[in-house]
Structure formats: C-alpha cells, structure tokens
Write a structure and sequence with these properties.
five-stranded mixed beta sheet; globular; alpha/beta; 276 residues; 43% helix
Length: 276
C-alpha cells in the first residue's frame, strides 16, 4: 500500500502536464479547423450584390424583378467567374455600411472618389457621370452659371441623398449640410421634397435624371439643368474584406468583358449611359 500510494503521488503532476498538453493540441486543432471551415463557408456562400433603387443602373421592374444596367453587368461578371450570388436592394447608407464591414460584397455601381479609393477593391469603370443642379422650369428666379453665385445668393437649398456622391462632391466644393444641403434618405424622398417646394435645386447625374424621375412617377419635363458641378466615374467595386482569390477571379472576368466588347454591348441597351 505505501509503495502504491507513493508512486501515485509522484506521477500525478506529470500526468496532469500531459493532459494539459493534449487538451491544448485539441483546442488548437479545433480552432484551425474552425478557421478553415469559416473561410470555406464564406467562399461557397457566394457574392452578395448590394444595390440601391437608381434607374437605369439598378431598379425593380414592373413585375418585381431586379433589372438595370449595373445589374446586367454584375450578372454577366458572376456567370463568367462561375460564382453563386444573391442580389439585394438597400438604402444607399446601408449599402455603404455593409460593404465596409462584410466580405464577399460586390457593389456594381459606386462612384470612385478620392475619399473612397482605399475603402474598396476597384474592378473598373462602368460609366461617366456628370453631377448637375436642376430646378423647376417655373422657377425663373433661379439663375446660376457658377457655384460661387449659389453661395452668394444665400437662402437656396439643394436636395441631396445622404452620403451620395453628389453630397460628397458639393461638400468638397465648399457647401455645408447645415445651410446649403437638404439631405434625404433615398431618391424617392429627395424628389418628393423637391416637388413639394421644400428644396430649390436637385443634385443629380444629368444622364440619369429623366429615367429616375419617371421611375418614381414624376414628370422630367418639369425640370431643367442649371449648372454642372462635377464629372466622375461610376465603377464596380468589391469590399476590402473579400479574399484575394475571389478578387483576382472577378478582376479577370471583368477585364475579359471589357476586351471582348460585352460591357459596351450592355451599355448600348441603355441610351442614357455613356462610357466615356
């Protein structure tokens, strides 16, 4: 008995060290497997294509199906890359939030600004945009040929969508959200406020303005351009958290679409879209 007791007592710490080491190996192995599983799951889950209601780039057609120029580009891109995808409409603020925090997110139409350059992987330009101020034709009191005249006039308000490229560009040009810019959550709210007389001017992409107004039930014949304030590049972009293999695969597919004329052919179906 004494011998057996002495043997058990002396070996107990060593056994515990072995058990701890074995447990640690299991935990590390499990963590590694979970990491591999999570990465594999994120890749097999496919690409999330996030869009806003902005015809003719992306919109819901009369039958409730997603449609539009940017949507068609994304569908062709993902088909070539042989990648599964889901397509979702969100507010623009939600698109920006999710694309900054999630992996495997494709935004098929976003203007490439200097402040956004480091926030995305940029696949390529899909159109040219001309930021323009519009007024009601009935507002003969509004006459502008330079943006500094707008600043000097005082009292006028420009309707913009919150975090949209027009807002960002106008802020960069010296206008402020407190006095000059009236922010709406989306384009339908923007247009309702403008036609209700709550804002004096609309900041829109000149080539998209007619289709946008028609989509939401307003008459494009009631407005006219006053002043172009910018020219920029709507582009296709991937969230930064997207893995490198996916980025390269999509980049190669996009480059092929540009080379073989597919992008130009899709753009030709949308008269308001200009590539250069």
């Amino acid at each position: 008995m004494p011998f057996r007791s002495s043997f058990a007592d002396s070996s107990l710490p060593a056994k515990r060290r072995v058990m701890r080491r074995d447990c640690l190996r299991v935990l590390l192995l499990g963590a590694g497997c979970l990491g591999l599983w999570a990465r594999a799951l994120s890749q097999t889950a496919g690409i999330k294509v996030l869009m806003e209601e902005l015809p003719p780039y992306s919109y819901t057609d009369a039958e409730g199906r997603p449609a539009g120029y940017a949507l068609e580009l994304a569908q062709e891109l993902l088909a070539r890359a042989k990648m599964p995808a889901s397509f979702e409409f969100n507010s623009w603020a939600r698109v920006l939030l999710r694309s900054s925090s999630e992996a495997q997110v494709l935004v098929p139409a976003i203007v490439r600004l200097a402040e956004r350059e480091a926030q995305f992987h940029w696949l390529g330009q899909i159109a040219t945009r001309r930021g323009t101020l519009f007024k009601l034709k009935s507002r003969s009191d509004i006459k502008l040929d330079r943006l500094d005249k707008f600043k000097a006039a005082g009292g006028l308000r420009i309707g913009v969508v919150k975090n949209d490229v027009s807002e960002r560009e106008l802020i960069a040009l010296g206008l402020d959200t407190g006095q000059s810019l009236d922010r709406s959550a989306d384009h339908i709210s923007l247009l309702r406020r403008f036609f209700a007389g709550r804002t004096d001017l609309l900041a829109l992409n000149a080539s998209l303005a007619p289709a946008l107004l028609k989509q939401f039930g307003f008459d494009p014949g009631q407005i006219e351009p006053v002043l172009q304030f910018s020219e920029s590049r709507p582009s296709m972009a991937l969230s930064l958290a997207t893995d490198e293999a996916t980025r390269q695969r999509l980049q190669q597919s996009w480059d092929a679409m540009r080379r073989d004329g597919t992008v130009a052919a899709i753009a030709a179906r949308y008269p308001s879209i200009t590539l250069e």
